[in-house]
Amino acid sequence: MATDYYATLGVDRSATPEEIKKAYRRLARQFHPDVNDAPDASEKFKEVSQAYEILSDPQKRQVFDRGGDPTGGQRGGAGFGQGFSFDDIMDAFFGQSGPRGPRSRIQRGQDALLRLEVELAEAAFGVTQELKVDTAVVCEVCDGSGAHEDSAPVVCGTCRGQGAIQHVQRSLLGDIRTARPCPTCQGFGSVIPDPCRECEGEGRVRARRNLTLTIPAGVDHGTRIQLSGEGEIGPGGGPAGDLYVEIQVRRHPVYSRSGDHLECQVTLPMTAAALGTTLDLPSLKADLEEHDGPEGVTVDIEPGTQSGQVVVVRGEGVPRLRGIGAGDLRVTVVVETPGKLDDEQRELLHRLATIRDEQRPEARLGATHRSVFGRMKDAFRAGAGE
């Protein structure tokens, strides 16, 4: 039974070229294998493409209207004749081995990576930033179809919509036939005779666009934030890939970060470390433009604090990215010994040394290690006792 191309496109025999073109574009989008996963979608797409190829050509349409065969009696996808297909053998043993049907012009876009430098406070407590991203976007002229104005892809005349051509090689077993992507349509099964002037048939163009990025509190150097669907638009106006924003944290003049903890170092005079004091350190949160909390952090230095001792302020560190609460602020104390003394200061220190019996202090090699002179004294005392 002869194919009714008008019925395939769902138009009357008196349909205008414009109506035929619109019907084809609607059905092609409906039955495209990348859009429709029905088992017969690919075959219907080929039928629709073949119907449009016939009815969009005035001479072929006239032959068909007169009851003739506009295809010249050729049947696409017929058997290979005598011999056997190498693809059939491979399918029997290993499954599908070669091209099967046309590949889609609509493909997913690639993922994109953007590196963003932020301040330590922005990474620690979160911030919202505006980004300028250069990626591929859908061509607004052709709406991703790649065709100029109201034109549309037509079935490839070389492979007749199969997306591949057959190669025959003689062997002792007979004719071995293999499929290769069609060089004319590059495996798409269709060609665009009139490509879009804006995107040159790609269905996408490069453009700069603005994005709003919300950086959550607690991100660290090297953290990647995924923005789904904000990457490159695919060929043919296909779905976009993802955009990954990699956080790069700038060095801070006061604070450094260790996991969820903030660390800093303060230098204190010897007298302050001995007597104890209270410090007001600048708050890291104060670096944020919209900060409305306290400007400082109070750190209590206990009397007798030694150089190298770490004072911990609970909960004043970095908020945990995937948890509750925050880390700590760790302040390392460095005790500074005065290098220049006037006569009065020297006299005061001598008096202090006399009061503490430290005019000739014994050097201690460790917390529990006795001095050499101490051990010698013990030895003499033991000998005298004997």
Can you offer a commentary on this structure?
Helix content is 24%, strand content 26%. With 386 residues, the chain is α+β, with helices and mostly antiparallel strands. Mean pLDDT is 82; it is low at 74-99. It is found in: Cytoplasm.
Head-to-tail CA distance between termini: 130 Å
Q: What is the CATH architecture term of the largest domain?
A: Orthogonal Bundle
Strand percentage: 25-35%
How many domains, as an integer?
A: 4
Uncertain segments of ≥5 residues (pLDDT<50)? 74-99
The level of helicity is 10-25%
Order of helices and strands: HHHHEHEHEEEEEEEEEEHEEEEHH
Q: In the CATH hierarchy, what is the class of the largest domain?
A: Mainly Alpha
Largest pleated sheet:
4 strands, mixed
User: Would you tell me which CATH topology of the largest domain applies?
Assistant: Helix Hairpins
The DSSP helix count reads: 9
Shape by Cα distribution: rod-shaped
Number of strands: 16
Average per-residue pLDDT, rounded, comes to 82
Rg calculated over all Cα atoms: 40 Å
Q: In the CATH hierarchy, what is the superfamily of the largest domain?
A: DnaJ domain
Instruction: State the secondary-structure class.
Output: alpha+beta
Binding site for Zn(2+) 1: 139, 142, 196, 199
Family: Belongs to the DnaJ family.
Keywords: Chaperone, Cytoplasm, DNA replication, Metal-binding, Repeat, Stress response, Zinc, Zinc-finger
Binding site for Zn(2+) 2: 156, 159, 182, 185
